[in-house]
Design a protein that fits this description.
Number of helices: 19
Low-confidence stretches: 69-79, 271-289, 292-302
Shape: elongated
Oligomer: single chain
Strand order of the largest sheet: 2-3-4-1-5-7-6
Mean pLDDT: 84
């Protein structure tokens, strides 16, 4: 199997610069060992006006069978049925994609110390693949490559047998791509789409394939109209890996929109930092937490067992939701899913949706809820979705209630108006519950240094007056009434550790912001 990469040039910018970009000298024919054969790089033509590099891969069919029995998960049926006589040595597939990554590794990364300006700039390219298996036909080939900036995408079906034209076309096409692209972009597209079109891989698809896909798809996969098909096929239709790839891609998009790194945005799962016990893992971090005592009868008599603030908060939220007669509930910023788990235990909550921007948090929540083990009826009541509360989302409309439990303080103050509109202006549930720390109570935390917030990610913590001022303004702006409820012991001097606002929609008319 082979492919060719051609470019044109001028005396000032000779086409032979392609040799610098590929890190392969045009005057030399070079040979490289791969896991399933031998790769050759040679230049059929190399002048200042035109230069062509050819990658020829000789596959060892017996070695292919010995190493992987000719296929990976999702392998091609011809490989399964004819292990020794098949198209693997001749048709472009994941074998050629791996050879590309091995032989042109630096070029895929866009690295060229000798000609960095040429590596960063688009080149007039012509790429030819004489025999490309295309499960989906020539139309799918064009559908996958046309959105990627190519001026010409030519996919000509290969006749099954020229001596018997009545037999029709084979599943192979001759691919020609022409256009001005960066060489690195073109190579990365081929690395991903060759096995996608073949719909097979010659090796086992492990979780690290997600990293390879997102790395090679950087800059084009997120906006591709066939993104889901590409991910599914590249990852051998493994649903768990495909879901992880889509979540990570969405996280990257949200992070870019907010001007953040994905790692900074995906920070909802941390251990030992939240002194008030918001997360189960934080309740034993040594802080003296405000609690109430309940009687526990035992053999030795009656003991007093403290109830962590996190449990008190969930109990207050559940009570408020029941009082609001809510059945369809959103947990916005659901974190590791503790509240969703509590809602699931009460049959009156028939539709529960947990939303979080953090993939890691949603993964932990899914394990906590044992979503893969729930019965059909229970599984139909709960759903976890990734999303940012700073953006409107049609999936969140039509619910009875929404909960923002210890969420607002994790946003920068300048981002709050976006959250307010997304929740109160766009989603507009009948009831909205918001809980947040009362900064005045921090003096009662024995393990919290003076002047420190309760969690390292808190952007602010409000006094009771500040919280009421914010809640009153939001209620007035969006047509809600609001009442306030203390959560935890209500200290006569500094108030409760957590403050909760219960917003109730007054009317279904358009809020003042939209009327203006």
């Amino acid at each position: 199997m082979f492919l060719t990469i051609s470019t044109t040039g001028t005396p000032e910018r000779p086409a032979t610069d392609l040799g610098f970009l590929l890190h392969k000298h045009p005057d030399n024919a070079q040979t490289f060992s791969t896991s399933h054969g031998t790769a050759h790089v040679l230049y059929p033509e190399a002048t200042a006006e035109r230069c062509t590099a050819a990658l020829l891969l000789e596959v060892d069919p017996i070695g292919l069978v010995r190493r992987g029995r000719g296929k990976g998960r999702g392998g091609a049926p011809d490989s399964a049925l004819a292990q020794y006589v098949n198209d693997r040595p001749y048709a472009a597939s994941s074998l050629l994609a791996v050879a590309l990554a091995t032989v042109f590794k630096s070029a895929l990364h866009g690295a060229c110390k000798a000609k960095p300006e040429r590596a960063a700039a688009p080149l007039p390219l012509r790429i030819e693949v004489p025999a490309l298996p295309a499960r989906g036909g020539a139309d799918l080939v064009r559908t996958l490559f046309r959105p990627l900036g190519w001026d010409t995408v030519e996919a000509v079906p290969v006749t099954l047998d020229t001596a018997f034209p009545e037999w029709g076309d084979s599943r192979y096409v001759r691919l020609v791509l022409e256009g001005e692209l960066r060489l690195a972009d073109a190579l990365n597209q081929l690395y991903v789409l060759l096995p996608v079109l073949d719909d097979a891989k010659h090796y086992w698809v492990s979780p690290d394939e997600v990293d390879k896909l997102l790395r090679a798809g950087d800059g084009w996969l997120a906006d591709h109209p066939e993104q889901q098909l590409i991910m599914s096929r590249y990852l051998a239709r493994r649903r768990g890996l495909t879901r992880e790839a889509m979540e990570r891609l969405e996280l990257a998009r949200l992070a870019e929109s907010d001007g953040l790194d994905a790692e900074d945005l995906d920070n909802a799962v941390e251990d030992g930092e939240d002194v008030d016990g918001t997360n189960d893992s934080d309740e034993s971090n040594g802080a003296v937490s405000p609690s109430v005592s309940v009687s526990v009868d035992g053999a030795a008599g009656t003991a007093e067992k403290p109830v962590p603030l996190a449990e008190q908060r969930r109990a207050a939220i559940l009570a408020a939701l029941r009082a609001a007669d809510a059945a369809r509930v959103l947990d916005l910023g659901c974190g590791q899913g503790q509240l969703v788990q509590a809602l699931l235990k009460d049959v009156r909550f028939t539709d529960i949706v947990g939303v979080d921007v953090s993939v890691r948090a949603l993964t932990v929540a899914g394990r906590r809820l044992r979503l893969d083990r729930l019965g059909e009826r229970q599984a139909g009541r709960v759903k976890l979705i990734q999303g940012s509360l700073a953006y409107t989302d049609k999936r969140l409309t039509g619910y009875d209630a929404a909960v923002l439990s210890e969420v607002v303080e994790h946003l920068d103050l300048e981002r709050l108006p976006a959250l307010e509109y997304a929740v109160f202006g766009s989603a507009r549930p009948r009831t909205v519950l918001v809980t947040t720390p009362n900064v005045e109570y921090n003096v009662r935390w024995e393990s919290l240094p003076a002047g420190h917030v309760r969690h390292s990610d808190h952007r602010f913590e409000w006094t009771r007056e500040e919280f009421r001022g914010w809640a009153d303004r939001v209620a007035e702006q969006y047509g809600y009434g609001v009442e306030f409820t203390p959560v935890g012991p209500d200290d006569p001097e500094v108030g409760p550790p957590t403050q909760m606002a219960v917003f109730t929609q007054r009317t279904t008319t358009t809020p003042k912001e939209e009327q203006a």
